[in-house]
Amino acid sequence: MLRIDNIELPDFPLLLAPMEDVSDPPFRVVCKANGADLVYTEFISSEGLIRDAFRCRKKLDIFDEERPTGIQLFGGDEEKLAQAARIVDLTQPELLDINFGCPVKGIVAKGAGAGVLRDVSLMVKLTEACVRSTTLPVTVKTRLGWDDASKNIEEVAERLQDVGVKALTIHGRTRCQLYKGEADWSLIAKVKNNPRIHIPVFGNGDINSPQKALEYKNRYGVDGIMIGRAAIGYPWIFREVRHYLQTGELLPAPTLAERIDVCKQQLSRSVQWKGPVAGVYSMRKQYFQYLKGLPGIKDFRAQLVTLTEPEAICTVLDDIAKRYEGYMMERTPIELVNYHENCPL
Question: CATH number of the domain at 2-247, out of 3.40.50.2000, 2.60.40.1120, 3.40.50.620, 3.20.20.70?
Answer without folding.
Answer: 3.20.20.70
